[in-house]
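step=encode ok
step=design start
structure_in=
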């Protein structure tokens, strides 16, 4: 590994070769010796994993540890090897622990369960009031899903210490909707097959009434249209379509909300 040049006046330190890809340490400071470090970035390589990189460039890195590094440089001590510096600050141990404690799957599952419970409660309310196919329930589901996606993104952002990349925001939103769709889909499957099997026939009649009301299908083609629609209204098909549709909605909404919720780790580098 290359040596860090010792200098009282500097703006940038050069690349330090360390195998394929290498990594770069960049320090931007004032002209006076011992000035406070304004920026520190480390590109990961085989020796330093991605979790080290994220830990060094987001709020999971405690303020006192950043101060340690500032003092480290301020005292005029520059180690020849970055891994010695990381070892001294015990970053490797802490980053591994932090990486293990944050899981997008667990966070999204938790939020997805909450969202599914709310959506199921809405469905139950309309079912017991005799309006299982009410469009009002459908209209209510959209703001609930959007709110659940945003909550999933914010929850994962909080778990990561306040930072969230755009890709992570999209992933959290989509997974939240997938988990919610699976859970609510299981409920709907049980509702149509175990709790009240007569709902399948009720849905067929409701669909036929809606087609007639819209008046877009000739009377001689009405039966064919109803039968065609019924093929997609079986409990299994509704379960599959619900999951695929939920993932699609999660993707579209997350692409939008992620723009406003994301906070890249590099934005958290202390000034």
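sequence_out=
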């Amino acid at each position: 590994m290359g040596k860090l040049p010792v200098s009282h006046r500097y703006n940038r330190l050069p690349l330090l070769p360390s195998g394929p890809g290498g990594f770069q340490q960049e320090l931007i400071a004032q002209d006076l010796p011992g000035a406070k470090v304004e920026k520190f970035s480390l590109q990961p390589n085989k020796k330093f994993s991605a979790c080290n990189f994220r830990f060094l460039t987001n709020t999971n890195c405690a303020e006192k540890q950043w101060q340690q590094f500032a003092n480290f440089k301020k005292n005029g001590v520059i180690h020849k090897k970055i891994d010695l510096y990381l070892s001294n600050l015990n970053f490797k141990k802490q980053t591994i622990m932090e990486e293990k404690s944050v899981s997008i799957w667990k966070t999204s599952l938790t939020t997805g369960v909450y969202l599914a419970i709310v959506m199921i409660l809405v469905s139950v309310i309309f079912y017991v009031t005799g309006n299982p196919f009410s469009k009002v329930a459908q209209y209510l589901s959209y703001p609930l899903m959007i709110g659940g996606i945003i909550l999933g993104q914010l929850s994962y952002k909080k778990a990561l210490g306040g930072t969230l990349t755009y890709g992570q925001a999209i992933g959290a939103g989509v997974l939240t909707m997938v988990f919610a769709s699976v859970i609510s889909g299981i409920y709907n499957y049980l509702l149509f097959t175990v709790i009240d099997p007569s709902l399948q026939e009720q849905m067929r009649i409701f669909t036929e009434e809606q087609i007639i009301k819209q008046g877009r299908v000739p009377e001689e083609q009405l039966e064919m249209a109803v039968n065609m629609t019924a093929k997609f209204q079986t409990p299994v098909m509704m379960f599959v379509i619900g999951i695929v549709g939920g993932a699609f909605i999660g993707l579209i909404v997350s692409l939008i909300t992620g723009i406003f919720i994301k906070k890249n780790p590099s934005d958290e580098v202390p000034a």
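step=design ok
step=annotate ok -> The chain has a mean pLDDT of 71.
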